[in-house]
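ok so for the tutorial part 2 we go from a plain amino acid sequence to predicted structure tokens. step 1 is just haveing the sequence, like this:
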Amino acid sequence: MKKILYALVALSSIWMLAACSSAEADEVLEFHNDMVDYVNPRMDDLLELNDEILWMTSEEDALELQKNEIIPALKEIQDYIHSKDPKYEITKEYHELIRNWMDALSEAVHLETEAVEGLLAGTLTEDEAWELIRLSEEAVDESLKYDKQVYDKWEEIKEEYSFEDVE
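step 2 — the prediction. this is what the tokens look like for a chain of 167 residues:
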């Protein structure tokens, strides 16, 4: 009888915890998990492609890989992030930081591609290309700042809602 009573108490505690979970907490956790499941593997793929570019001896081949694989993959990730429309303020704030991170990263890649393409095609002077590279580096710096803000925001959210990382 005691075992049944303990089981009922344990079950009711679980139900109470589930009932105490707010819609806001559910949304931000689901949003985060969706981002991790969708974005992280694609970013890993992009890092591998970037490594390939670093080892290429032909600037033309590197440019083609960037234009045909990296930029479309970034666009896909960017579109996915932009398609999200969270309801609650905490998720909206987190979403905005992630969106800004991806937009800055995408801008950096586009500027770099424009510089290399213009230089190779002869449509840009060396100074114009270097200016685009400088702007690309600024966009990378901006993306890194947003990346840090995304990390910090998630840490804040985890603390606020008592979320734990699961590996």
